[in-house]
Amino acid sequence: MADAAGIDEAGRGCWAGPVVAAAVVLAPEVLADPSCLVGVDDSKQLSAERREQALELVLAHAVGIGVGIVPAFLIDAYGIVPATRLAMTVALLQLPCRPDSLLIDAVALPNIALPQRAIIRGDSASLSIAAASIVAKVTRDRLMHTADRAFPAYGFAAHKGYGTAAHRRALDRHGICPLHRRSFRPLLERSGIMAPELL
């Protein structure tokens, strides 16, 4: 799988904002000698500053990077699992090169006719998936900083849309905004709509 694309997502469990997926293809020589990517790891294990540093390494050494972004209203329409698969598919379509196979963190893409492996905790087991996790997380965090400027009452720059106590207090005070996933259970009673089956 020398020309495999690693794929991962960020923001799947959030109450607000998009789910973002990234696909990264690393050159065979990078995979053979990954010392140039020291510091690239599961994005959840890194501070924001270290993620930014790791992103620069990925941008310098990847032969292909694609990003897919699916907004909250489509997550509400289709459910988070189909929306995650859609984001991953879009990320694949954005790649400048066609991968020979896919290494995916925990999710399978049954509609993609390429050999693939869904790897539990893949962002810790595969350098390509770890690189994708960095791209997805940094991209999403930047989007949520932009969202914070549009909707400053919610504190999106701080919690990035995750279900924190501060986020809940902001919801209690201001209600939901267009970036909220109205089908997610913590928001259902505020939105009055039915949840998709796959949450």
Please describe what this structure looks like.
By secondary structure, the chain is of the alpha/beta class. The chain has a single domain (4-148), classed as Nucleotidyltransferase, domain 5 (2-Layer Sandwich), CATH 3.30.420.10. The protein has helices at 28-32, 48-61, 72-78, 80-93, 122-125, 127-150, 156-159, 165-174, 185-191, and strands spanning 4-10, 19-26, 62-70, 101-105, 116-119. Strands 3-2-1-4-5 form a 5-stranded mixed sheet. Helix 2 (48-61) packs across helix 6 (127-150) and helix 3 crosses helix 4. It starts with a strand and ends in an 8-residue tail after the last helix. Residues 194-199 have low confidence and may be disordered.
Q: Compute the number of helices.
A: 9
Number of strands: 5
What is the radius of gyration? Answer: 17 Å
Largest sheet at a glance? 5 strands, mixed
Report the order of strands and helices: EEHHEHHEEHHHHH
Question: Which residue ranges are poorly predicted, with pLDDT under 50 across at least 5 consecutive positions?
Answer: 194-199
Class inferred from helices and paired strands: alpha/beta
- What is the level-2 CATH architecture name? 2-Layer Sandwich
Domain count, please report it: 1
Distance between the termini: 32 Å
- Choose one word for the global shape: globular
